[in-house]
């Protein structure tokens, strides 16, 4: 995906979130390349602190990409971890869109084998165990400076599980990658991360 594709994705996410925050609906038209099914996440962060304000998305390719971006952006305005996003906040925050590859189940024989197969900054992960599921985007461990062990511990906790769950027999880990496009400042230039 080229930078223009990323600009379109991020601007659409902002447009959808601002409309949602104002309580109105808005039809957003996408170029042809947005009709294929793809997972996508929209992250809204406070500027300039970078504090998370909302992050919602689709890990699986269940919707056409354009629809996934718009739906994720609208939902991110109501991320249950935060109060609903206001229009003023949306206009002062920065938007990021992560377009995902389909998740693939990892095979590993031990916790050490799993650690050897993970690349920080490239791999987003989904953990599934005992009916619980948690996901972290590929940029999260890199942004926080986590080791592979810390990444898997936080992933386990994201699923509401003990931090060492990733070491247990029967745990399933899926891996995906993401193309990340983000505003440098509110309504500013879009870059590839």
Summarize the structure.
With 193 residues, the protein is an alpha+beta fold.
Total of helices: 6
CATH level-four homologous superfamily name of the largest domain: Hypothetical protein ph0010, domain 1
What class would the helix/strand composition place it in?
alpha+beta
Q: Give the CATH topology of the largest domain.
A: Glycoprotein, Type 4 Pilin
Main sheet: which strands, in order across? Answer: 2-1-3-8-9
| CATH C-level label of the largest domain | Alpha Beta
What is the straight-line distance between the termini? 12 Å
Tell me about the biggest sheet?
Answer: 5 strands, antiparallel
DSSP strand tally: 9
Q: What's the average pLDDT?
A: 97
**CATH arch. level architecture of the largest domain:** 2-Layer Sandwich
Q: Please tell me what the overall shape is.
A: globular
CA radius of gyration is: 17 Å
How many domain units? 2
Secondary structure: helix percent: 25-40%
Strand portion: 15-25%
Q: What letter string, H or E per element, gives the SSE order?
A: HEEHHEEHEEHHEEE
Itemize the secondary structure elements and their pairings.
Blueprint: H1 3-21, E1 39-45, E2 52-58, H2 65-76, H3 87-92, E3 94-100, E4 104-105, H4 111-117, E5 124-129, E6 132-136, H5 139-144, H6 148-158, E7 172-176, E8 178-183, E9 190-192
Antiparallel strand pairs: 1-2, 1-3, 3-8, 4-7, 5-6, 5-7, 8-9
Helix pairs in contact: 1-2
């Amino acid at each position: 995906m080229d930078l223009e594709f990323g600009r379109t994705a991020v601007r659409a996410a902002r447009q959808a979130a601002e409309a949602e925050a104002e309580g109105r609906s808005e039809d957003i038209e996408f170029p042809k390349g947005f009709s294929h099914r793809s997972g996508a996440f929209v992250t809204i962060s406070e500027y300039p602190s970078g504090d998370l304000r909302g992050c919602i998305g689709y890990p699986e390719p269940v919707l056409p990409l354009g629809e996934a971006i718009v739906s994720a952006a609208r939902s991110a305005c109501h991320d249950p971890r935060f109060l609903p996003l206001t229009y003023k906040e949306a206009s002062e925050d920065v938007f990021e869109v992560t377009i995902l590859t389909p998740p693939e189940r990892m095979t590993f024989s031990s916790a050490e084998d799993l650690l050897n197969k993970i690349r920080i900054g490239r791999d987003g992960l989904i953990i599934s165990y005992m009916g619980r599921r948690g996901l972290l985007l590929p940029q999260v461990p890199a942004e926080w400076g986590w080791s592979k062990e810390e990444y898997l511990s936080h992933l386990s906790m994201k699923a509401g599980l003990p931090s060492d769950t990733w070491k247990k027999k029967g745990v399933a880990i899926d891996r995906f990658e993401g193309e990340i496009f983000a505003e440098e400042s509110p309504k500013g230039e879009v870059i590839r991360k």
